[in-house]
Amino acid sequence: MLPADSHVHSEWSWDTNIGDMEGTCARAVAIGVPAVAFTEHLDHVVWTADRGTLEESPHLASFADGRGRVTAPAFDAAGYLAAVERCRDRFPGLRILSGLEIGEPHLHVEAVADVLSAGRFDRVLGSLHGLPVGPEFYEPPMLFEHFGRERALRLYLRRIPAVVAGSDAFAVFAHIDYPLRFWPVGAAPFDPFAYEEEFRLALRAVADGGRVLELNSRVPLCPEILRWWREEGGTALSFGSDAHHPAGLAGGFREAAHAAEAHGFRPGRHPWDFWTS
Ligand SMILES: [Zn+2]
Ligand SMILES: [Zn+2]
């Protein structure tokens, strides 16, 4: 059986215009995904996107000002939670978890608490998508342009302990390898050992903070990171495809499950439980 997909976006995530909660549920039933968590984006940071990113995505550009500063619209918690209830009625055989993916939760503690108080969110992810640069906030690839990709990755990983220490709103730390999605094709390949110290620092902070590490399957997670996670005290894993449309659900999950098993992680009692070592 495939693991639960604990990181999925629907039309309630502001950054996708092809998200579809009902379609994703139907897809889960069709391909045998036992449980889905709709972890919609909750973003308060205003970030500066590069021209290429905005040109590629007119939808994203519709939230940008003339300087490329992107402001996410407010999250409609009540509307979202009602949509989850409708899908639970419509797909009784599928376990549907409510959730959020909170970007930079440590920077917006009160605003985050406000949204969380609106109802029940079963699975809450914390994410770091970028870093402040002076008065701006850059995500990769802008971060790579500004700092160089090696320094940007080190700075990104070194910031993770502050995210964990600064917010108890989330249980799962999402996509610890997020900058690697933007590693330039044609550049020297990513060598995990060159960043071992920084990865271990970040993983230790996540483990010591009592959080779960996400195995995000958007890009295959380096096996070394799974090994370091266990060595730094990590005991639980969550699986997430980060799909923003139904076809992406559980993408790469067979390989991800094999990798987790190879590092000693096993499914829990229920399909929506975290895998543990
Ligand atoms: Zn994310
Ligand atoms: Zn996501």
From TrEMBL:
This is PHP domain-containing protein. SUPFAM superfamilies: PHP domain-like (SSF89550). It comes from Paractinoplanes hotanensis. Residues 5-217 form the PHP domain. InterPro entries: PHP_dom, Pol/histidinol_Pase-like. It comes from the Bacteria.
